[in-house]
Specification:
By secondary structure, the protein is mainly alpha-helical. The chain is about 75% helix and about 0% strand. Helix 5 packs across helix 7 and helix 10 packs across helix 11. The protein is globular.
């Protein structure tokens, strides 16, 4: 079963079960057990090998991995920060301030989108920060938690993948072999204009707000939220603390500054002598996990000191937010742990090598279709494994090997297709850590978030697929002309699709 299509079965089973049963914990665990059984059967290691592989090689190994531990610590600290801002009254004060300036449901959604775009450094940071800041405002204007989770998710990875200064840019650059003849960060920047999925997702966000309609399960969640909001007439609870708007804005600003400094520190920006890296190189070489922990912990210490010094919250109340923040993040931590363990099972079964072999064996004979093929394969692999970065590591070296010429337009377009497909698959995968944290940031049921945003993701992915087909066949006209034609076709298809769906919904409503 190792290195064959069987290696993808555990992840596929977990995803299907999660969507059917709407219960993610048991679904992920069943996938893990299947992966362990397959590995034990292939190795003929029996029950002992099965349990060892699932728990020792899988769950315990993932929870002892330095990167994963850093992400879990970051989650706990960020959860504590949210609890602190709520207890201090900063979130409520910001909601009152925004209430006087944001007067419509559309305005609340646009503000959420812009905040998501502004926080482009890291997708984890984006998911939890945007959720904590905008949740009071979107609640005020009857935006469902499912729609908030989609807005967060759609401005996390899709924004990071087109931001040259981000942890994602650093990851992509790191997967480009230095012997390939091209700087990884420079190749990332060249590929940005062809990242159709990321840009079309942002266009769709604004179009849905401007056209004032939803479709699929999202429409049902929005309608239910509107009815519930009209039925509720209880006054909002007053905050326990004495906080002001500053007590939410300042911690968020500090978090951005300190997390940026933390990532630069891990990349060698503050080193002395010859070891000192430049600003861009420091981001490219940064350890996002460690950098985010350093930045978030520094923010926590400074925030507690400021709250206590100003008399906003007593020190004992600040410390009480630590377990509260941890408890708030327990569901996300549990899902992440199971998702990481499932990924370990598929890795041990050789899923990456199997997909790499399929792509590498067929790529050379389908050059004009290659960008579209790479997009689909990357999307499927990221969906099944729940990781964009793992997909980058598999497919980017293949794209570079197939098109070794530094100036080859198909090389740039294919790299873009790989990144776009990975983000699309990651965006809709129930076992993706970004999707999980978008649910946590919006305090939304995870399966409801996945099912409601799936039609939106698939719609943009279908349009992006057509755009990559066009790009593959027009690349002979030059990289600029190919990009313009592909963009025009993609935007026309996306807006035409939305207009058709809106007209259909309006016809059904009149009927």
């Amino acid at each position: 079963m190792v290195g064959t299509w069987w290696s993808l079965v555990p992840a596929v089973v977990a995803i299907v079960l999660a969507l059917v049963t709407k219960e993610v914990y048991s679904s992920l665990f069943v996938g893990i057990l299947i992966g362990g059984a397959f590995f034990a059967a292939d190795a003929a290691s029996g029950f002992t090998g099965f349990f060892t592989h699932v728990f020792s090689d899988g769950m315990i190994a993932q929870l002892s991995d330095g990167w994963n531990v850093g992400i879990l610590v970051f989650l706990v600290v960020l959860g504590t920060m949210v609890a602190l801002m709520n207890a201090a009254g900063g979130s409520a004060a910001f909601g009152e301030w925004a209430r006087r300036r944001i007067r419509t449901k559309a305005g609340a959604q646009v503000a959420t989108i812009f905040l998501g775009i502004l926080i482009f450094i890291d997708d984890y940071f984006n998911c939890l920060t945007v959720g904590s800041v905008m949740k009071p405002i979107t609640d005020k204007y009857a935006v469902s938690r499912e729609k908030l989770a989609y807005l967060i998710d759609a401005t996390a990875a899709p924004v990071c993948i087109i931001a040259p200064i981000s942890s994602w840019a650093a990851a992509v650059a790191g997967f480009v072999d230095k012997d390939s003849g091209e700087n990884g960060l420079a190749l990332f920047c060249k590929a940005i204009p062809f990242n159709f999925y990321a840009f079309f997702t942002l266009i769709m966000l604004f179009a849905l707000v401007a056209m004032r309609f939803e479709f699929g399960p999202m429409a049902a969640f929005e309608d239910a939220k509107a009815r519930l909001d009209r039925a509720a007439d209880e006054p909002a609870a007053r905050p326990a603390g004495k906080g002001r708007v500053l007590d939410l804005v300042l911690p968020i600003v500090l978090l951005i500054v300190f997390c940026t400094l933390g990532m630069l520190y891990t990349g060698g920006f503050f080193a002395r002598g010859a070891a000192r890296a430049g600003f861009v190189d420091a981001f490219a070489n940064s350890d996002a996990s460690v950098g985010l922990v350093l930045g978030s912990f520094a923010t926590l210490v400074v925030t507690v000191a400021l709250f206590v010094a100003r008399g906003v919250l007593p020190f004992r109340s600040c410390m009480a937010c630590l377990p509260e923040g941890f408890k708030a993040m327990v569901p996300a931590i549990l899902i992440l742990t199971l998702a990481w363990t499932l990924k370990a099972m598929t890795d041990s079964l050789g899923a990456a090598e199997y997909v790499a072999g399929v792509v590498n064996g067929s790529a050379r004979g389908l050059q004009s279709f290659l960008p579209a093929i790479i997009f689909v394969i990357a999307a499927f692999l990221a969906f099944a494994t729940g990781t964009s970065w793992g997909t980058f590591g598999i497919l980017i070296p293949i794209c570079i090997a197939v098109f070794p010429g530094v100036g080859d337009p198909l090389r740039i377009i294919s790299i873009s297709a790989c990144m776009a497909g990975a983000v699309a698959g990651d965006h809709c995968s129930p076992i993706s850590d970004t999707t999980i944290m978008a649910s946590a940031g919006a305090q939304c049921d995870h399966v409801s978030h996945v099912s409601s945003q799936l039609p939106y993701v698939l719609s943009v992915a279908a349009v992006s697929f057509v755009a990559y087909v066009v790009a593959g066949f027009t690349q002979g006209l030059g990289i600029v002309a190919s990009g313009i034609i592909s963009w025009l076709v993609g935007i026309a298809l996306l807006l035409g699709f939305l207009c058709a769906v809106r007209a259909k919904r309006a016809g059904v409503g009149r009927a």
